């Protein structure tokens, strides 16, 4: 089996520097993770992966008390830094190699990105484990997925050339030597690496609160065979 590590930063990304140490913001993020993100990983048909949830050092106890990680291969990984997006820095790229050295004995490992307010399909890890990977592939891109507007309770089909959901493939020795796949500007740069598509609609991008600026286009509402808009009760394949 492939060594798969799912990496989820909660308050180390630097996207919301004024909020990421705010108790109310962190509480809301825990609510979202407990209700949506964590169940999607608990529901994975293949549990052969590790899940590193990275938080700022001064907030470790806060998240340990509030996140319900039972039944998942997850652990809290403290981080002292915040991303500097202007320089193209990233918490994953600068992670202490010692954190990997004791856990990875394989020649290669796969690093999957998952935001703390999104979901993967229940067969995502299983699909990733069984895919035939081309020798020159540096990143696997699951380009098709859904937007899920919580307020409306509806899913909307979507696809991205370079979504915030991806899997980087690393040679372990090179990784420990400091070599990283650099993505200046974030996930949009992933498609510039040697990439390979992942089949199926593999993710749900939750639209909520301050990230609700994504606008539907045209008649993209996903409906069932009766024409009913898809809602929360029909999200079984995403752990709901």
Walkthrough of the structure:
Helix content is 18%, strand content 24%. It is built from five helices and eleven strands; from the N terminus they run E-H-E-H-E-H-E-E-H-E-E-E-E-H-E-E. The longest helix is centred in the first third of the chain and has 20 residues, at 23-42. It is globular, with a radius of gyration of 17 Å. 33% of the residues are buried.
What is the count of structural domains? Answer: 1
**In DSSP terms, counting alpha (H) and pi (I) runs of 4 or more, how many helices?**
5
* Gyration radius over CA: 17 Å
Order of helices and strands: EHEHEHEEHEEEEHEE
Q: What does the main sheet amount to? A: 7 strands, mixed
User: Low-confidence segments, ≥5 residues, pLDDT <50?
Assistant: none
Q: End-to-end distance, in Å?
A: 27 Å
Under CATH, the topology can be stated as: Spore Coat Polysaccharide Biosynthesis Protein SpsA, Chain A
Reported CATH architecture: Alpha-Beta Complex
Placed side by side, the strands forming the largest sheet appear as 3-2-1-4-9-6-10
- Percentage beta strand: 15-25%
Quickly give the structural class: alpha/beta
Average residue pLDDT: 83
Q: Can you tell me the CATH class? A: Alpha Beta
Overall shape:
globular
Count of strand segments: 11
Instruction: Bin the helical content.
Output: 10-25%
């Amino acid at each position: 089996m492939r060594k798969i590590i799912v990496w989820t930063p909660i308050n180390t990304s630097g996207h919301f520097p004024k909020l990421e140490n705010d108790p109310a913001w962190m509480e809301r993020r825990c609510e979202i993770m407990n209700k949506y993100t964590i169940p999607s990983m608990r529901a994975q048909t293949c549990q052969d992966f590790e899940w590193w949830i990275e938080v700022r050092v001064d907030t470790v106890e806060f998240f340990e008390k509030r996140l319900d990680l039972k039944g998942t291969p997850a652990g809290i990984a403290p981080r002292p830094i915040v991303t500097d997006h202007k320089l193209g820095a990233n918490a994953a790229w600068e992670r202490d190699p010692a954190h990997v050295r004791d856990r990875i004995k394989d020649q290669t490992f796969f690093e999957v990105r998952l935001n703390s307010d999104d979901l993967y399909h229940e067969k995502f890890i299983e699909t990733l484990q069984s895919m035939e990977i081309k020798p020159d592939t540096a990143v696997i891109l699951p380009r098709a997925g859904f937007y899920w507007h919580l307020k409306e309770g509806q899913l909307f089909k979507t696809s991205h050339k370079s979504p915030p959901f991806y899997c980087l493939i690393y040679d372990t020795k090179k990784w420990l030597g400091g070599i990283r796949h650099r993505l200046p500007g974030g996930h949009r740069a992933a498609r510039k690496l040697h990439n390979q598509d992942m089949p199926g609609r593999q993710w749900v991008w939750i639209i909520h609160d301050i990230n609700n600026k994504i606008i539907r286009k045209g008649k993209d509402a996903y409906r069932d065979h009766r024409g009913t808009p898809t809602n929360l009760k029909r999200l079984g394949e995403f752990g709901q």
